[in-house]
């Protein structure tokens, strides 16, 4: 047993869901207990999908364990086929169903459905989400892709993008655009937005572009074996890596790697004098290995930071991570325990953290700026706007994203000059982060600097409240004061002002608990 | 608005005797582990240790959102291959992890070993483990056990299982006391206690208590009132200890709160004069706030997918106090003794459904085209994309919604999606 609080990766069947939800015309029948449907929320909420994931859960309960769980599974698979008419089906078990040892593959085979049914073997007690996604995609390709004659013009497949992938939507678009600049069309991009019938024609591409080794390498190797397709080893995140990737593709295809770079702005932004202050800023990098290794190269060679620590949570990629860390002169941190990551950050005291949602919160706790470079991420990192990480536009996005949490150059200069100023001092933080400058004399509550002030905290009643204060504010009775303290801190200020204004308007001199709620009712609209 | 009391139980117009549509099939619900999210905030010296799989840890992480970073007092002991191979050492593993946890968090006084689907399926005896660990860590820490597994519990039933596990261990008493049962946000609990105190009812005990030192005693002279409709097992456990249940509608909205308080006041012989004097002002406030917040709800239809067992009392509130027409009221579980008083007050008409076959229920919802659909977050965005207006149900469990001062907020939770839809449509036409 291992005591766990935060987990960087979900169980492997969630990886299978990421493949199924990314694809179209594929249905996943998952043998799982009631409650496992929580995973739907990751797709409908965090990724904001406008449809339910194509997953049928058997949702067995205790009363079903008497022995008809196998029939439950068969019924669920039969109903799912009848209702959704998918082109192909994947079937498997979640951690609990693994223990009751029904055989989803065999059970579905017995139904004799007129579509390919692909059984998944995902060991829940050994492996995790990325393995689940990689293995699922690998099995789909193994079952459906066949050797075929090549397309007349040079084409490739793009491998590895899934649902719930960090910036996968826009990375695929950006890499497709890059390849088009070289004169290469995309045959199939999968799993994201592909159908099983598309998987069946992957064999006609000349080569494969592997975008995400974590979720596509199994399929790339499979296609190399069965269809003789070479695959790219360089992931185009950052300016240098993108240029290397283009040369790699040129070597595979014999085409020219010279493409139009007129929209690439990172090099000049980074060279301009406002960026001088970035030189040698100490950065700590953590995430999945692919994104962390790419980020370290950008940090060190394209922005001029000093990498003081780096690591990844996925052990499968420990070897390349160790090699990359060595090149930066640091020891790689390979762990899936966020407490170890936190301890390392605390020890190193970097000026910037590049990490996952978890590191964002560690940064918040320690008061260190942070930008997100890797899954797992929350809803704000599935943005509405175009924001790839790959290619030239990806480089532009990365520059803006990483620099934003830092104080701007000139601002930092002024803060240093007036370091001791009572209002304008370093602890006030970056001006574009909504942190309120606190006069030095006052103690600063831990963490307050990094809480955004909710907009509702500042409203047009401000002036009225000030007027009340001047005219002699109503007095708070002890009970009412205690009641006020129970209101969440981020609306307490507003409640206090509203109540005082309400009392003053009515000539009430002492505010009681009733006054507080009268005011609440009055302002309820 | 008048302050007349709602018509008392009038079976003729209610839903208590309506046939119930019972369904089995695919269910789109949380398991009982999710109860930990609010229980650990309520019980300040308790730690909840789930014995389960990576899926359990991932679920808690997904459900707890950003709370996961506030040093929460819960975690998952993730079962590994070796735990599945030989059960003998699962107990040794558990003892080691618990000892490590308690040494790191000396402030913990109550430890809950929470069973999950994997631990239940492999028949890991957590009840015995809890007894053994209680002995090992006495008197400083008391160790309880309950199951929050999906195979046994749905969403809020996790709280029920937790409280029911505590009842047998409560001290005995012969005092005639009122016990208020169900976890409430602190501010709401204080309002509840203030109202009861003003009525002259006391002492009042709470289950769960904020700290283990404040745990209530229970006995043959205890009467208890429930503030949550999902506490069936706790109700049974308290009844076994000799306590008597005060049946009442749940304190949602002005009518619900008044009826709930009146059931208690009647039991304790409080005069109508005192009752009216204490409740008049907050009732008037509640009515005013509901009126302001429910404008958009009048005459609209509503469809409830099953989620928390709050559906029936909430449908009663929306129908009687906000002018809505329920089409279907789905609940994961129907308990006559608990839901009966609210069913009596729910105007006849809607389908009452228990359990779920989610695909069939979605077909019914599509056919009914309700103005407002109350559902979980796995369905909300997909339904919005089909043109339906939804209110996500989980918020009704996490937000202060009980008693008078929250009545307007409660109506507002339902009216906000409709108001928003109107705003966005107005914007689209501009």
Tell me what you see in this structure.
The complex is a heterodimer of chains A (525) and B (430). Chain A contains 21 helices and 15 strands. Chain A folds into four domains: 12-136, Nitrogenase molybdenum iron protein domain (Rossmann fold, 3-Layer(aba) Sandwich); 145-253, Nitrogenase molybdenum iron protein domain (Rossmann fold, 3-Layer(aba) Sandwich); 265-404, Rossmann fold (3-Layer(aba) Sandwich); 460-524, Helicase, Ruva Protein, domain 3 (Orthogonal Bundle). Chain A has helices spanning 12-22, 40-46, 69-84, 95-100, 104-111, 129-144, 168-182, 196-199, 213-227, 239-253, 266-271, 289-303, 318-327, 338-348, 357-366, 391-403, 409-417, 461-470, 478-485, 489-505, 513-522, and strands spanning 2-4, 26-31, 55-57, 88-93, 117-119, 155-161, 185-191, 207-210, 282-287, 306-312, 332-334, 352-355, 370-372, 475-476, 510-511. Chain A is α/β, with parallel strands linked by helices and 525 residues long. The radius of gyration of chain A is 28 Å and the shape is globular. In chain A, helix 3 (69-84) packs across helix 5 (104-111) and helix 20 crosses helix 21. Chain B is an alpha/beta fold. Chain B folds into three domains: 21-27 and 291-429, Rossmann fold (3-Layer(aba) Sandwich); 32-153, Nitrogenase molybdenum iron protein domain (Rossmann fold); 177-274, Rossmann fold, CATH 3.40.50.1980. Helices cover 45% and strands 15% of the residues of chain B. Chain B has a six-stranded parallel beta sheet with strand order 1-12-11-10-13-14, with helices on both faces. Chain B has a four-stranded parallel beta sheet with strand order 3-2-4-5, sandwiched between helices. At the A-B interface, strand 1, helix 2, helix 3, helix 4 and helix 15 of A face helix 2, strand 3, helix 3, helix 4 and helix 5 of B.
């Amino acid at each position: 047993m291992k005591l766990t609080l935060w987990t960087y990766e979900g169980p492997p069947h969630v990886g299978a869901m990421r493949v199924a939800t990314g694809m179209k015309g594929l249905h996943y029948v998952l043998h799982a207990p009631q409650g496992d449907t929580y995973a739907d929320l990751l797709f409908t909420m965090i990724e904001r999908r406008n449809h339910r994931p194509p997953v049928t859960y058997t949702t067995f309960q205790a009363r079903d364990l008497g022995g008809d769980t196998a029939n439950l599974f068969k019924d669920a698979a039969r109903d799912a086929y009848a209702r959704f008419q998918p082109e192909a089906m994947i079937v498997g078990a979640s951690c609990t169903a693994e223990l009751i040892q029904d055989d989803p593959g065999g059970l579905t085979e017995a139904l004799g459905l007129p579509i390919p049914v692909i059984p998944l073997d995902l060991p829940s007690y050994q492996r995790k989400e990325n393995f689940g996604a990689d293995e699922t995609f690998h099995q789909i390709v193994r079952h459906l892709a066949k050797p075929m004659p090549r397309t007349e013009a040079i084409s490739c497949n793009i491998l590895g993008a899934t649902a719930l992938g960090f910036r996968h939507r826009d990375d695929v678009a950006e890499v497709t655009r890059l390849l088009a600049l070289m004169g290469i069309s995309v045959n199939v991009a999968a799993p994201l937005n592909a159908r099983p019938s598309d998987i069946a024609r992957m064999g006609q591409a000349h080569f494969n572009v592997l975008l995400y080794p974590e979720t596509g390498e199994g399929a790339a190797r499979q296609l190399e074996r069965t269809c003789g397709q070479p695959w790219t080893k360089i992931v185009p995140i950052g300016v240098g890596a993108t240029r290397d990737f283009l040369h790699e593709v040129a070597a595979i295809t014999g085409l020219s790697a010279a493409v139009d770079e007129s929209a690439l702005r990172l090099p000049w932004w980074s060279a301009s004098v406002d960026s001088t202050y970035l030189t040698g800023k100490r950065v700590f990098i953590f995430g999945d290995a692919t994104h962390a290794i790419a980020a370290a190269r950008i940090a060190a060679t394209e922005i001029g930071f000093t990498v003081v620590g780096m690591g990844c949570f996925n052990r499968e990629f420990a070897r390349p991570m160790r090699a990359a860390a060595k090149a930066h002169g640091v020891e790689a941190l390979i762990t899936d325990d966020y407490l170890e990551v936190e301890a390392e950050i605390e020890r190193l005291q970097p000026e910037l953290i590049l990490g996952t949602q978890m590191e964002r919160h560690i940064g918040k706790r320690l008061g260190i700026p942070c930008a997100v470079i890797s899954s797992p991420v929350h809803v704000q990192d599935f943005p509405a706007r175009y924001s790839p990480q790959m290619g030239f536009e990806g480089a532009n996005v990365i520059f803006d994203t990483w620099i934003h949490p830092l104080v701007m150059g000139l601002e930092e200069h002024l803060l240093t000059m007036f370091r001791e100023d009572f209002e304008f001092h370093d602890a006030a933080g970056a001006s574009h982060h909504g942190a309120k400058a606190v006069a030095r004399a006052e103690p600063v509550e831990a963490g307050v600097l990094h809480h955004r002030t909710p907009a509702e905290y500042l409203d047009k009643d401000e002036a009225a409240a000030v007027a009340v204060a001047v005219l002699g504010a109503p007095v708070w009775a002890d009970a009412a004061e205690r009641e006020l303290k129970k209101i969440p801190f981020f609306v307490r200020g507003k409640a206090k002002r509203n109540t005082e204004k309400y009392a003053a308007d009515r000539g009430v001199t002492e505010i009681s608990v009733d006054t507080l709620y009268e005011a609440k009712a009055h302002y309820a609209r | 608005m008048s302050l007349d009391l709602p018509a008392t139980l009038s079976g003729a117009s209610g839903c208590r005797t309506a046939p119930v549509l019972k369904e089995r099939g695919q269910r789109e619900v949380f398991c009982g582990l999710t109860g930990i999210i609010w229980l650990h905030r309520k019980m300040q010296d308790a730690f909840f240790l789930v014995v389960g799989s990576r899926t359990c840890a991932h679920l808690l992480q997904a459900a707890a959102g950003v709370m996961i970073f506030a040093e929460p007092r819960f975690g998952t002991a993730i079962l590994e291959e070796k735990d599945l191979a030989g059960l003998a050492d699962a107990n040794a593993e558990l003892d080691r992890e618990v000892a490590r946890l308690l040494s790191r968090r000396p402030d913990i006084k109550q430890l809950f070993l929470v069973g999950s689907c994997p631990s239940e399926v492999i028949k890991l005896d957590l009840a015995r483990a809890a007894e053994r660990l209680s002995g090992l860590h006495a008197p400083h820490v008391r160790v309880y056990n309950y199951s929050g597994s999906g195979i046994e519990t749905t969403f809020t039933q996790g709280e029920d299982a937790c409280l029911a596990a505590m009842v047998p261990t409560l001290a005995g008493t012969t005092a005639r006391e009122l016990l208020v049962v169900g976890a409430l946000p602190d501010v709401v609990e204080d309002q509840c206690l203030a109202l009861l105190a003003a009525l002259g009812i006391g002492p009042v005990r709470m289950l769960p208590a904020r700290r283990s030192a404040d745990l209530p005693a229970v006995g043959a002279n205890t009467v208890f009132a429930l503030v949550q409709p999902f506490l069936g097992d706790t109700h049974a456990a308290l009844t076994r200890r000799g306590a008597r249940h005060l049946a009442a509608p749940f304190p949602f909205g002005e009518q619900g709160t008044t009826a709930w308080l009146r059931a208690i006041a009647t039991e304790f012989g409080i005069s109508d004069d005192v009752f009216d004097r204490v409740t008049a002002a907050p009732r008037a406030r509640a009515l005013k706030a509901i009126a302001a917040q429910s404008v958009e709800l009048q005459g609209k239809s509503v469809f409830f997918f099953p989620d928390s067992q709050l559906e029936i009392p909430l449908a009663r509130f929306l129908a009687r106090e906000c002018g809505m027409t329920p089409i279907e009221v789905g609940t994961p579980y129907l308990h006559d003794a608990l839901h009966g008083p609210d069913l009596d007050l729910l105007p006849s008409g809607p389908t009452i459904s228990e359990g779920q076959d989610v695909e069939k229920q979605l077909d019914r919802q599509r056919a009914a085209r309700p103005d407002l659909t109350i559902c979980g977050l796995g369905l909300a965005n997909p339904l919005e994309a089909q043109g339906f207006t939804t209110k996500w149900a989980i918020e009704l469990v996490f937000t202060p919604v009980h008693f008078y001062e929250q009545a307007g907020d409660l109506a507002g939770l339902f009216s906000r999606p409709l108001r928003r839809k109107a705003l966005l449509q107005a914007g689209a036409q501009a």
